[in-house]
């Protein structure tokens, strides 16, 4: 039963992929967009597919430093408007 469910999910992903890729910026989406989503999360993948580059904070999450950094900023009370002022190209 698990194999059937897994095969159905993979088939649904391949059916939905062409429609989703049509909405992405030229040269974005596809396998690279999928890998960005798996490694960095859906928000980073969506930003990548819109044509934005991957931020240094996401790269640091691969080695867990980014999570510590984000935790420290959250503890200190950083808001999204503060982040927009610091990195306007990312938002």
What's the arrangement of secondary structure elements?
Blueprint: H1 2-23, H2 30-40, H3 42-49, H4 56-61, H5 65-76, H6 80-86
Helix pairs in contact: 2-3
Largest beta-sheet details: none
> Radius of gyration over alpha carbons?
16 Å
Number of strands: 0
Compute the separation of the termini in Å: 43 Å
Give the assembly state of these chains. single chain
User: What is the total number of structural domains?
Assistant: 2
Beta strand %: under 5%
Shape: extended
The helicity comes to over 70%
User: What structural category characterises the helix and strand content?
Assistant: mainly alpha
Low-confidence stretches: none
Mean pLDDT: 78
> Helical stretch count?
6
Describe the protein in words.
With 91 residues, the chain is an all-alpha fold. It has two domains: 1-54, no CATH class; 55-91, no CATH class. 73% of the residues lie in helices and 0% in strands. It contains six helices and no strands. The protein has helices at 2-23, 30-40, 42-49, 56-61, 65-76, 80-86. The chain starts with a helix and ends in a 5-residue tail after the last helix. The model has no long low-confidence stretch (mean pLDDT 78).
């Amino acid at each position: 039963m698990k194999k059937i469910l897994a095969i159905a999910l993979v088939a649904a992903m391949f059916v939905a992929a062409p429609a989703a890729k049509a909405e992405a910026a030229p040269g974005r989406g596809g396998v690279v967009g999928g890998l960005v989503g798996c490694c960095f999360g859906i928000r980073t993948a969506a930003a990548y597919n819109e044509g934005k580059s991957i931020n240094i904070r996401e790269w640091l999450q691969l080695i867990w430093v980014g999570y510590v950094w984000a935790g420290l900023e959250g503890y200190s009370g950083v808001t999204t408007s503060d982040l927009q002022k610091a990195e306007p190209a990312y938002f």
